[in-house]
UniProtKB/TrEMBL annotation:
The keyword Iron-sulfur applies. This is Oxidoreductase alpha (Molybdopterin) subunit. One of its GO terms (biological process) is cellular respiration. Its cofactor is Mo-bis(molybdopterin guanine dinucleotide); [4Fe-4S] cluster. Pfam families: Molybdopterin, Molydop_binding. Residues 673-780 form the Molybdopterin dinucleotide-binding domain. Keywords: 4Fe-4S, Iron, Iron-sulfur, Metal-binding, Molybdenum, Oxidoreductase. One of its GO terms (cellular component) is oxidoreductase complex. Belongs to the prokaryotic molybdopterin-containing oxidoreductase family. SUPFAM superfamilies: ADC-like, Formate dehydrogenase/DMSO reductase, domains 1-3. It comes from Acinetobacter guillouiae NIPH 991. InterPro entries: Asp_de-COase-like_dom_sf, MopB_CT_YdeP, MoPterin_dinucl-bd_dom, Mopterin_OxRdtase, Mopterin_OxRdtse_a_bac, Prok_molybdopt-oxidoreductase, YdeP_MopB. One of its GO terms (molecular function) is molybdopterin cofactor binding. Residues 130-512 form the Molybdopterin oxidoreductase domain.
Length: 809
């Protein structure tokens, strides 16, 4: 299945043009493996582009080191035995763009209106450099103007104190925020009186958190890196580690080289799941070799994962019955099931009721391929299930996660070395923020513990997540929006509606290191507050400080930057939060600024609230930090019934809901299923360039990946420009224009295109039933012949009337 051909590396002559323009944009096959020389040259180009070739190279030596800083990119954990070059290509891009020598000063804003900046593309905004001073939007001049820190905090306090109720404010968190900042943030907000905590996890792995909480009692993965050393088989469902978590490829490479099986299950072929050339493997680099990653690669149609997983269980069930009838040991681990679970027999009854023809139809896989997947899982004594947004961002995302847990529970492979659940999270501390209490649905126990330690009365009413916050802002129920990082205005679905919702707020505050499009979507009043980055020294009264993060495998460790701050007028995130709290809550007994003098004090209070953080400082200062034990790994199941639960949703319910998103009478055109994806020069909504090297796309982003058969049947041709229209039953017209057709290895009926350009197509009402994650991986769309774009600025082709139509959630 894997191509072992040795390929030549990219050369410097392949330098890409950084402006998106049809004269320079091109599509050409990329035949090299993931990583390798292409990655090294990309790192060098980005360091040069950010004018930090020497400084950036030194900074990279400190990334993911025991006494260095945690990568501001993904949440993949570090090995215990770290080496000098413990970073990947996209982590290096994140560091280069943070450590950049470029600056966005008040003088810059004096010469540029917000309206003009809004016409520029997102790469232009990111490439401008670091913010240096707090600024306030002046509607009279349509410009940002300087404001002092004290006046900024007074303004925030005035707006928050003027609200009729604390629930009229919402407090967003990006997964980049540290444990210390997140803990102070939730303490401030609950002291203020609300649980309105929209969080980036509401758009990515909330289905994982809720699904695993339902199934095994805690919404986190169960494996560590050590388990990959013992696994027989690693299943990769719906994610692209080569771009989104490149350091994961090093782990998968080791599994492959020792003879373990890696099974990729993903609608679109991704280079990182096929072959990897490790830049740190001298022999591979010198011989231009590579290591095969996936032994087998299966391509279900978009959204077909639930049918695939249920089909795997149906095969196991049939083989189990056959084995027992033959007097052999069954497939299922019945002792484990009896001692640790409930609901097994009820689940099997639903499996029995499901017809094979429906499983094949909805999965898009042949009977032979589905049986092969099930057989490989059946024969594996130690299996790891890894997954990303391809599992979670559906209307049935929680049901997908339930089925992943069901399969491993049925074989007793949760709590077994070398086996378990591995959700691959994005932001470097998105899991830690949740652990620290950034949760719109807090448990009563956590609130009781917070109140006990701080002598406050936290609100018990559950708050708004992302979807509810957008709707509440649009309808006037939320009037103040504060964002601790992120790019809310474009990361969210239904872009025109969301941006109109933000504009209706009385105050929008963004805490950030770099300028992004959200800062250009102003409420009636708006602030941008610049903060320190991960790479920078954080000097407080008691000396240089370290923050902490929790990676995707529940490892907690410290992070301390070494670079001088980009500006003398920057504050750390904990300091900004503390000063907001102090200004807003003048009668609070909490010593907000005292905490910021020494972050050890924050960690001492975290330890008092969360029992799993006992001796937080003592353990955090050990090299590599410490691991938070997952209760399921010691057979403790914190579910309402005290055991793990088998949970299943009927197949017909899952896919009838999917199809009911649009009316059959709404359109006579062929309806495709679109998934939104990242390019390789992208981290979430941050653009580091305009290339998608592994997919052969250069100098452009408005492309549509489509099966050649679908191109032919629709009467289109490669390189033709088309408009994409989503066809939800709410009647709102959502169209993005001028996307270039790119034939690609993707199942018929399935499409892929980059976000945030396609986020305007995602209806706010289209989300998972339980977690309310936007269904960005299953958008029903039709295609129209379009025109070549006059320019490539984001969102300018979207129908502005879209924002004026009410979307029911």
């Amino acid at each position: 299945m894997n191509d072992l051909e040795k390929n030549k590396p990219e050369t410097e002559g392949q330098e890409r043009h950084i402006q998106e323009n049809t004269n320079f944009a091109r599509i050409e096959p990329y035949t090299h493996p993931a990583g390798g020389w292409g990655a090294l040259l990309s790192v060098a180009r980005n360091l040069k582009r950010q004018e930090v070739f020497a400084k950036g190279s030194i900074t990279l030596m400190n990334i993911n080191q025991p006494t260095g800083f945690d990568c501001p990119g993904c949440a993949w954990p570090e090995k215990k035995d770290t080496h000098a070059f413990n970073f990947c290509e996209n982590g290096a891009k994140a560091v280069a763009f943070e450590a950049t020598s470029k600056r966005v000063t008040p003088e810059f804003f004096a010469h540029h209106t917000v309206s003009w900046l809004a016409e520029q593309n997102d790469f232009y905004l990111e490439d401008l450099g670091r913010l240096t001073d707090p600024i306030r939007y002046d509607a009279a001049t349509d410009k940002y103007v300087p404001i002092s820190w004290d006046d900024a905090f007074k303004l925030i306090a005035q707006h928050l104190q003027a609200l009729d109720h604390p629930d009229q404010a919402a407090f967003y968190t990006s997964g980049r925020a540290s444990n210390e900042a997140a803990f102070l943030y939730q303490l401030f907000v609950r002291s203020y009186g609300t649980n309105n905590f929209p969080d980036c996890s509401n758009m990515c792995h909330e289905t994982t958190s809720i699904g695993l909480q339902d199934s095994i009692g805690l919404g986190k993965g169960t494996v560590t890196l050590d388990d990959f050393d013992q696994a027989d088989t690693v299943f990769s469902f719906g994610h692209n580690p080569g771009t989104n978590h490149p350091r994961m490829l090093g782990t998968l490479r080791e599994v492959s080289r020792r003879g373990g099986n890696i099974i990729a299950i993903n609608p679109i072929k991704e280079r990182g799941l096929e072959r990897f050339q490790d830049p740190q493997a001298a022999i591979e680099m010198m011989t231009n070799g590579s290591t095969p990653i996936s032994r087998f690669y299966f391509q279900p149609k978009i959204g077909g994962d639930y049918a695939l997983l249920l089909g795997m269980m149906k095969h196991l069930h049939e083989w189990d019955k056959q084995a027992i009838l033959a007097g052999k040991m069954g497939i299922f681990d019945r002792q484990y099931i009896a001692e640790n679970t409930v609901g097994f027999d009820e689940m099997l009854k639903e499996v029995d009721r499901t017809e094979w023809r429906d499983i094949y139809q909805y999965s898009g896989l042949s009977p032979e391929n589905l049986e092969s997947i099930a057989k490989m899982f059946c024969e594996s004594e130690r299996s790891i299930f890894c997954w990303g947004m391809g599992i979670t961002q559906h209307r049935h995302g929680t049901a997908n996660v339930h089925m992943l847990a069901n399969l491993l529970l049925a074989k007793g492979q949760i709590g077994r070395p070398g086996a378990g659940l591995c959700p691959v999270r994005g932001h470097s501390n998105v899991q830690g923020d949740r652990t620290m209490g950034i949760n719109e649905l807090p448990s009563a126990k956590m609130l009781d513990d917070i109140d006990r330690v701080f002598n406050i009365k936290s609100p018990r009413k559950h708050g708004y997540g992302v979807v509810e916050t957008i709707k509440a802002m649009y309808e006037g129920a939320v009037k103040v929006f504060i964002a601790l990082g992120g790019n809310f205005a474009v990361a969210t679905p239904d872009t025109p509606y969301t941006q109109e919702a933000l504009k209706r707020c009385s105050l929008v505050v963004n805490i950030a290191t770099k300028l992004n499009r959200s800062h250009l979507v102003c409420g009636k009043d708006a602030l941008v507050l610049p903060c320190l980055g991960r790479t920078e020294l954080d000097k407080q009264l008691k000396g240089n400080q370290a923050i902490s993060v929790e990676d995707s495998m529940s490892n907690v460790h410290l992070s301390a930057g070494r670079n001088e701050p980009a500006s003398k007028n920057l504050l750390s995130e904990p300091d900004i939060v503390a000063r907001m709290a102090e200004a807003t809550l003048p009668d609070s007994k909490i010593k907000w600024r005292w905490y910021v003098e020494d972050y050890d004090r924050i960690r001492d209070s975290i330890e008092e609230v969360f029992e799993e953080f006992k001796d937080f400082n003592g353990r955090a200062y050990q090299p590599g930090g410490f691991h938070l034990i997952h209760p399921a790994n010691v057979k403790v199941w914190n579910t309402p019934v005290g055991k793990a639960q088998f949970l299943i949703t009927p197949l017909s319910q899952v896919y009838n809901d999917q199809e009911n998103q649009f009316s059959a009478q709404y359109t006579k055109s062929k309806v495709y299923t679109l998934m939104t994806i990242r390019s390789h020069d992208q981290y979430n909504t941050t653009l580091y360039g305009l290339d998608d090297r592994y997919r052969g796309v250069f100098g452009q982003r408005r492309v549509l990946f489509i099966n050649q058969q679908d191109i032919d049947e629709a009467g289109f041709v490669a390189d033709q420009w088309v408009d994409i229209e989503s066809v939800f039953s709410d009647g709102v017209k959502r169209v993005v224009k001028s996307f270039r057709i790119v034939p690609y290895n993707i199942p018929s009926g399935s499409l892929a295109a980059y976000y945030p350009e396609t986020n305007p197509l995602v209806a706010l009402s289209s989300h998972d039933q339980y977690a309310k994650i936007p269904a960005s991986k299953s958008v029903p769309v039709i295609l129209h012949a379009g025109d070549a774009p006059e320019h490539f600025n984001l969102f300018t082709e979207v129908d502005p009337e879209n924002a004026e139509k009410k979307v029911e959630t």
